[in-house]
Amino acid sequence: MRPGTPRVSEAAAARLLLATPGFEAALCAELPPEWQAQAAPAWPGLVQAREPGAESPPRDPVFARQQLPAAVALGAASVAALAEQAYAAVEAAVDGAAGPFTLHAFALTGADPRLHGRAALVGEQTLALLRQRRRRASRGYRAPDQAARAFGALAVVVQVLLLDRERGYASAAPPRPLASGGCQLAAWPGGVAPVAEDRRPPSRAYRKLEEAFCWMNDEPKAGELCVDLGGAPGGWSYTALKRGAKVLAVDRSPLAPELLRAPHLTMIEGNAFTYEPPRRVDWLLSDVVCEPPRALDLIQRWVGRRACRKLVVTVKFKGREGYGFLDQVRGAMAAAPLAHARIKHLEHNKNEVTVMAVLVASEEGNW
Of 191, 225, 253, which one is at a domain's C-terminal end? Predict the structure, then answer.
């Protein structure tokens, strides 16, 4: 191991969790007791924890965008040798799968693009070995973009992660459903949802709403009514408007002039925290800047009055000391009349998390 290189255990298989670099400690702090024995940052953006038993319920840590269950360490100098090791680690799971599988091959967020390319080569050669040696089972392969559209129907998700040119991990596990909706595994390599770059919105905030829609596998439809609280300058309003939705934007500051001309936008200059919609709306969208308790009060007021069918709301923090408040957010979500609810630190979140929820009486979508 090179001097200064973080140590990654190569002993027994472990549960790996991927986070935004800098948020590893927040992820470790929220892990359940049965994972805690080995929980420690192992690499920028990577936490290694104890692999829970098969009877352990699936977990969805807020700060983990992806998990690699029962990850097996890889170590070899060539792409071919790494692929052989990855094949040996996953072939039994693929061969015994009672349904389709997909394969994600990637490097950590922020890695050199050449390492992402090398990971792709290892993934391609691993898949080639499966096709050569497990021909029947390999017929169940689905490309990642195709598999993401029906992710819960997969029997196995194979993941190949490279940490550097010669070391990485392989994992093969089912995308177990969560009680609150969705699956414990993300549908995209490394938990990075596909968000296209767009230069037209008046702010970069559109990216986290687009990412939230990916996680929900749902989005506003043409003609649906959305309320965008604290909407200025209009990144989230733009994101709903481009889908054909009608938007009521509430802020004391006006939206960008080009958005104010949109035919389906109504600008309301007022207080986002006291605003009452004219009727039950389809989507509550809020990226308003406020203290976490105020954001939770806003969510509870809208949910309690069933003023919306679905919601995406960010909860923002100052510094890194206030994440314990997430326990209150989780508790409020568990007690609310929600069909689905998820709290995630998305790739495009800063020091904030995104709450995504669908009310019981609403259409539940395909999380």
Answer: 191
Question: For residue 183, what are the β-bridge partners?
Answer: 177
Domain residues for the domain of 139 are 14-191
**Is 350 tagged catalytic?**
no
123 lies in the same domain as 176: yes
> pLDDT tens digit string along 343-359?
999 999 999 999 999 99
Q: Is 24's pLDDT higher than 60?
A: yes
Residue 196 resides in a domain: no
Tell me if 145 is assigned to some domain.
yes
pLDDT (mean) for 23-28: 94
Of 131, 166, 191, the one marking the end of a domain is 191
Q: 319 and 252, same structural domain?
A: yes
Q: What is the pLDDT of residue 251?
A: 94
Question: Burial of 97 by CB count in 10 Å (0-12 exposed, 13-18 middle, 19+ buried)?
Answer: middle
Q: How confident is the model at residue 81 (pLDDT cuts 50, 70, 90)?
A: very high
Rounded distance, CA 298 to CA 34, Å? 34
Spot the catalytic one: 246, 316, 318, 344: 316
367 inside domain:
no
Q: What percent of the chain has pLDDT over 90?
A: 84
